[in-house]
Amino acid sequence: MADPYTLLGVPRGADEAAIKSAYRKLAKQLHPDRNKDNPKAAERFSDVTRAYDLLSDKDKRARFDRGEIDAEGNPTHPFGYGQGGGGPGYAGAGAGPGGFDFNAGGGDFGDIFEGLFSGGRRGGFGGFGGRSAPPPPRGANMAYRLSVPFVDAATLAPQRITLGDGKTIDLKLPAGVENGTQMKLGGKGQPGPGGAGDAIVTVEIASHPFYTRDEDHVRLDLPISLNEAVAGARVKVPTVDGPVMLAVPAGARSGQTLRLKGKGFTRKSGGRGDQLVTLLIDVPGDDDALKSFVEGWQDTRPLRAGLGV
Question: Distance between CA 79 and CA 131 in Å, rounded?
């Protein structure tokens, strides 16, 4: 895999928010559902997902930046030796595998070799024969896509997913869940000598026949009759939590938006958004009684005066 920073198009000093934003943008562009006839897009989607998995993990990112692991998460210098570095001596505590010069004079390598050789022997090279082996690598991570119904995402209903080994587990959706949200299942990836990798589950929220999402709010267009708009009425309205009664005020206008508190998506910070109900007055196209009424009535207001006509 190429350099994860290059794959996501961010500089090495990018903060977590910039990395997350870059991944979301690429994930939307490269998602397999949007590129069914472009297998290369699916490959890039997998690559940027793995890149995000590495850079979103503070420990892995730090180890990659120090050169201790490669873009796949595998150790680069198992025994701590390196080819880089610009001067004599070793790179210094915490500097990563910058390398050190065996020919440099005056250096005390006791601390360097402690931990590299068995028994933690100091003061010379007496423990050279007891070099410890690098930790065995973990198995590869596994990527999964989880399609979540719109209403389930809004109400954080538990979701069941089947993993590659055939086992099913129930997942609890996080507050603020959205398209591209990733959930890590530790130890549910491919097995390996050093333990199993992780399962990375990417959430996809399915569209709904009449609800749409507006940040943490849910929007709904609600048809009402002419008499309900003129006289006002209490009408039944669907919400993600089930139907409720809504008071339509007398003289309601088409396009007017009413608010149902706490019927939206759960926020990361707690609480929920609202459901925004836009009224649409539905007038029948062929109604003799309505035709008879308007024949004897006329609205004399200058409704289009503000449009200059």
Answer: 9
Q: CA torsion angle for 186, 192, 195, 198 (degrees, to 10)? A: -10
Specify the CATH number for the domain of residue 236.
Answer: 2.60.260.20
Instruction: State how many domains the chain has.
Output: 2
Q: How far apart are CA 141 and CA 198, in angstroms?
A: 5
pTM of the predicted model as reported, rounded to 2 decimal places: 0.54
pLDDT at 239: 95
Question: The domain containing residue 151 runs over which residues?
Answer: 139-207
Residues 6+ apart with CB under 8 A from 126: none
Q: What's the pLDDT tens digit per position in 83-98?
A: 444 433 333 333 343 3
